[in-house]
Specification:
TIM Barrel; 303 residues; six-stranded parallel β-sheet
Length: 303
């Protein structure tokens, strides 16, 4: 089993303390003027995360949204922080008009190439596939991309990470990926569940064997920090501490800690990890930030 980073493949135990969902670079047609496209700022943010004890970051920026793949190895080398890059495709509104039409008929081929050969004209290989659901349902675009992700997963064994619009449609995604497309639930990471704080649903998703990611802390327009502890408590009390992941999901320059208003990547370790240790114990905090990511992002790569 290995975790594919932008420098090399790591044995899971070498990953260390991990931010399981974040962005160093990101550009969306739906978020004009909020681009993450400053390499120096990205390095400063990763260093701040490292200073707080961070050792690994999983960047969920997918194909076509300014991943800056060529810069990622340099950032990893200069900071000592392992970085996992993503292939995949986001919701259609994040792309310029006509872009999705150009790639939709070769998505699985594109994903496999970026996982096994390199992203664009770089030798940097992706370590996971990022896809997205629709709001409460799977629209035609979401289903097409998820089907391509399943095909690429079966060719490579790469994990599939899912953006859930406002945390919704996670059950529909598992119905498609697991029940109909034969993807093992342990290869599926369900993101943004903090934005849909339904404890019963979360327990049902965990019981099906998927990973549950709570990400994007301290956003006033999302049900994140005020309900995060209760969401985690419901899952931990039900015996699912071993299915939980946490990430910062920094998507705008303003949200960076090193060069913006924050809270940024370090917040996970300076604020959330101590809270989790106090409420649930150091063993749970270690599982969320170290043991679980080492399992969730590891695979026996076929290519």
């Amino acid at each position: 089993m290995r975790i594919r980073t932008v420098l090399n493949d790591l044995v899971p135990g070498a990953l260390g303390v991990c931010d399981s969902h974040d962005h160093l670079f990101f550009r969306s047609a739906a978020l004009p003027g909020q681009e993450l496209d400053d390499e120096a700022a990205a390095i400063a943010e990763v260093r701040a995360f490292a200073d707080a004890g961070g050792q690994a970051i999983v960047q969920w920026t997918p194909h076509g949204l300014n991943r800056r793949a060529a810069a990622l190895p340099k950032i990893s080398t200069r900071t000592g922080v392992a970085i996992v890059a993503a292939t995949g495709l986001h919701r259609a509104e994040h792309y310029p008009e006509g872009y999705v039409d150009k790639v939709q008929d070769r998505l699985a081929e594109l994903f496999v190439r970026e996982l096994t050969v390199g992203i664009g004209d770089t030798p940097v290989r992706a370590g996971l596939i990022k896809v997205a659901s629709g709001f409460h349902v799977l629209d035609a675009h979401a289903e097409r991309v998820i089907r391509a992700a399943a095909e690429a997963h079966h060719a490579t064994n790469a994990p599939i990470a899912v953006h859930h619009e406002l945390g919704s449609a996670a059950d529909a995604v598992l119905d498609l990926l697991v029940d109909r497309l034969d993807v093992h639930p342990a290869a599926v990471i369900l993101g943004h569940l903090n934005r849909f704080p339904d404890h019963r649903l979360h327990r049902e998703l965990a019981a099906r064997g998927a990973w549950l990611a709570f990400d994007g802390p301290s956003r006033a327009n999302h049900a994140t920090d005020p309900r995060l502890t209760d969401c985690l408590a419901a899952l931990i009390d039900a015996g699912y501490a071993d299915r939980l992941l946490l990430g910062g999901d920094t998507t705008t320059a303003r949200a960076r800690a090193a060069t913006g208003e924050g809270p940024g990547m370090p917040y996970l370790l300076t604020h959330l990890r101590p809270r989790i240790s106090r409420h649930f114990g150091a063993d749970v905090a270690d599982a969320v930030f170290r043991t679980n990511p080492a399992r969730a992002f590891a695979t026996d790569w076929r290519q």
